[in-house]
Every structure is written in C-alpha cells, then in structure tokens.
Write a structure and sequence with these properties.
Layout (H helix, E strand, L loop, with lengths): L6 H11 L2 E9 L2 E19 L11 E9 L10 E7 L5 E8 L4 E3 L2 E7 L16 E10 L2 E12 L4 E3 L7 E8 L2 E3 L4 E3 L6 E9 L5 E11 L5 E19 L2 E7 L2 E3 L6 E3 L5 E5 L3 E11 L2 E8 L4 H4 L2 E2 L5
Parallel strand pairs: 8-14, 16-23
Antiparallel strand pairs: 1-2, 1-4, 2-3, 3-7, 4-5, 6-7, 8-9, 10-13, 11-12, 11-14, 15-16, 15-20, 16-17, 17-22, 18-19, 20-21, 21-22
C-alpha cells in the first residue's frame, strides 16, 4: 500500500502558520556565516519565566522557543539563530537569538528547540518584502566553493545591489548573473522580476598579503563566548614580502595592539609569532627595522606544535 505523503500537510501548514522569520548562521572554519536569511517559520514559546506575577503577561522573560519550519530548510545542531516574532500588524514583536538543538521531523514539518543566548540589536535583518524575488549568491574560485551561498530577497521590480565581500586569501575577479559575465566591481541587477543566481568569482592571492599575530591566552570566539588557548588576532596588511632559504623579509605598518581580552601588547618585535596568509605559514620574527610608521622585519619559518596548528582563527577582532 502506498504511504501517505505527509509533505502535503507541511505545505498547507506553512501557508497558514509561517508568519515569523529566522536567520540561520553556522560555524564554518571558526566564523559564523549566514546560510539563510528571513526564512518563513512559526515561532512558539517553549518556556516563559517571570517571577513577578503582576507583570508576567506584559514583561515575560523568554527562556526557550520552538521553531517550526518547512522540510527543505537545512538547519543543524548548534546553528546560531536569530528569530523574529511578527505580530498581527506585520511588525517585529520580539527578537531572540541563541543556539538550536537537533532538528526533529514530524508530519511533514521540521522543528528545533532553541535556548536563549542573548538579544540582537534594535535593527534586525529586515522582514522580507511582500512580493519577494530570491537572489542566490555563490562564492567560488573558478568552480571551487570558497564560502557558503547566501540568499537575498528584493521586492519585485526593485534593483538588487551588493559589493563582493572580502574573503581572506582571495581577491575578487568578476561576477556572473545566470552564467552571463558582467562588468564592474559591484553587483547590480535592475528591475528584478524573476529569481537570479549570481556567482562571485575570486582568484587566489598570488602571495601572502596579510598576517595575524599568533597568541596564547584568553580570547573571544566569534559567537561572543570566552575561551583560552592558541588563537590569531587582528589581520595586518602586508606591503611587500619575499623569501629565501626559509627566511622571510616583510614590510607592513608598524602596528601596536593591546589584546582586548588579556591586555597583552602585540607588536612586530623579535620572537613574535605570526601566521602568514593565505598559505598559512608559521613564522617567528627575528629582526626589525622601523622607518616612520612602517616596519621591515625578517622572520624564520617554524614547525608549529599540535596545539599551535589547531589554533582558533577568530574573526571577532577583524
């Protein structure tokens, strides 16, 4: 006997119940990357806490919410969610953020439980337009995916624009719209009336064009939590670089940083440990020469320990 297609139930429920929205971000190589923006869903309060019985109805403290989603949404355990509850007038009634658990599939729907981890700023990602047209943006290095795709929504007949983001280790080359090459450094699609796919093509940087300090100690992860151990801190642009017999000669700004979490002073000085990008070379500074606001230094490549090679590449300080 042919089984019943519960997906039909899910589609009907989505049409009537999904009046709220969520953004989904995922930890990818140490960075929180948005994989979905403004996905239609239904937000249900799983627990509400307020010890004051006279104000519990008007000022509840939301501890957890359950999010009901269509089956097609790729949501995973430990994804970071920004949930936007919409009132009967179409306005944002509440914004909640936190990590979600494993998704559960039932009767043509998918749901996850999310514990509160904080609140978002007053200006959340805007609620999508009433007649949304989806623009999918892919990021590639000539057919190799280098960042997760993103989805954007614009009103029918509006113009879609975006500036290609910087991706460490790559330089933007050109973009295509529906596989047709375009000119210019800014993506522009005028009078959008149907979905489009944009591909941003990047080239690998020809040589190391940035370095980060390799630091051991307290640091802040990209999701705002504290941790302790080896991590990289603040990208510094390289003016010029050359190497011979494992010795690098580098010129950059003569930077001085005070580490935000442990107060250590970080500067280009002998014995400082650095990581050169995009080839991820570990070097130790040997000698420095300062001229004005520039420093030229020599550094030798070293084999990192296991703990050093497993460093956390934080983007919190970028």
């Amino acid at each position: 006997m042919k089984g019943f297609d519960f997906g039909q139930i899910g589609e009907v429920v989505s049409q009537t119940m999904d009046t709220d929205y969520i953004d989904i971000k995922r930890n990818i190589e140490g960075s929180l990357i948005e994989v979905y923006s403004n996905v239609s869903c239904h937000i249900a309060y799983a627990s509400i806490d307020n010890p004051d019985p006279t104000t519990v109805d008007i000022r509840p403290i939301i501890q957890a919410i359950t999010i009901h989603l269509p089956l097609w949404v790729d949501i995973r355990n430990d994804d970071f969610i920004i949930a936007k509850k919409i009132d009967s007038n179409g306005a944002v009634a509440g914004i909640y953020s936190g990590r979600c658990g494993n998704p559960v599939v039932s009767m043509g729907r998918k749901k996850v439980l999310m514990q509160m981890g904080g609140t978002e700023p007053d200006q959340p990602t805007p609620v999508p337009p009433s007649n949304p047209i989806q623009i999918t943006v892919n990021y590639t290095n000539y057919n190799e995916i280098i960042a997760p795709s993103t989805q954007h929504f614009v009103e029918s007949d509006d113009t879609f624009t975006m500036v290609p983001p910087a991706i460490e280790g790559y330089t933007f080359a050109y973009y295509t719209v529906d596989e047709v090459m375009q000119e210019g450094s800014t993506v522009v699609i005028s009078n959008v009336v149907e979905p489009h796919t944009v591909e941003l093509i990047y080239a690998v940087a020809s040589s190391s064009d940035v370095f980060r300090f390799l630091v051991n100690g307290l640091y802040t992860k990209n999701d705002g939590t504290l941790a302790n151990g080896w991590h990289t801190y603040v990208p510094v642009a390289v003016d010029s670089i050359s190497s011979k017999d494992g010795i690098y000669t580098v010129t950059s700004d003569n930077v001085v940083f005070e580490h935000e979490d442990n107060g250590k002073e970080l500067s280009v000085k002998p014995d400082a440990l650095l990581v050169l990008y995009p080839d991820e070379t570990f070097v130790k500074v040997e000698e420095t020469t300062v001229a004005g606001n520039k420093v030229t230094f020599t550094a030798t490549e070293f084999a990192p320990t296991e703990a050093q090679s497993d460093y956390y590449e934080t983007r919190w300080y970028d």
